[in-house]
Design brief:
single chain, 183 residues, alpha/beta, 6-stranded mixed beta sheet, two-stranded parallel sheet, 6 helices, 8 strands, 34% helix, Integr_conj_element_PFL4695, Integrating conjugative element protein, signal
Length: 183
């Protein structure tokens, strides 16, 4: 007996193959999970500056509109006033942390307690190579006065709220190193 070949069934089976394989291909890619999104501006300009060549065989990326940069001078005075809602002058209990590689930094504000702390600790801060974050300051003159108290130290006006939350801080002035937090 001669085997029968179902020639009309072959095109039908070939036609079903894409219908079966397309859902299987999509089922293999898991959905993206956003772990944290704090908003802000796009990092695209940094990647564009690298002038990376597109991958061969990949589809082009969708166009992302970039926010316009502010026109005019961009200086420290434009960043002021700086206020940190989660931080206030006060006592800080010393405690150990483990942050290998962390550059020593200190948090100060434009208040009498910070002024006295800076005058007292300036030599030790310089020796450590600590960087200062001024977390409460209103005017360029007040920022300049803080810098005059500790010449040779870098101090920048920055909101300290996020850092305070991450390190469990409520008060300043404070020194944060790779091994501890102290006043």
């Amino acid at each position: 007996m001669k085997p029968r070949i179902f020639r009309p069934a072959v095109p039908w089976l070939i036609g079903l193959l894409p219908l079966v394989s397309v859902p299987a291909a999509f089922a293999q890619t898991p959905p993206l999970i956003v772990v944290e999104d704090r908003g802000g501006t796009s990092a695209l300009p940094y990647y564009q500056a690298l002038d990376l060549q597109p991958r061969t065989g990949s589809r082009p990326s969708p166009r992302i509109d970039m926010p316009r940069l502010p026109e005019g001078p961009s200086d420290e005075a434009a960043m002021l006033p700086v206020r940190s809602a989660h931080l206030a002058p006060g006592d800080v209990a010393p405690r150990a942390i483990q942050a290998p590689g962390l550059t020593p930094m200190f948090l100060v504000g434009d208040d009498q307690r910070s002024h006295a702390w800076l005058r007292q600790r300036a030599p030790a801060l310089r020796e450590l190579g600590a960087v200062g974050l001024v977390v409460q300051v209103d005017t360029p003159q007040a920022l300049a006065a803080l810098r005059a108290l500790a010449p040779g130290l870098t101090m920048a006006p920055v909101s300290g709220d996020e850092l305070a939350q991450r390190l469990g801080l409520r008060h300043y002035p404070v020194l944060v190193t790779a091994t501890g937090i102290e006043q």
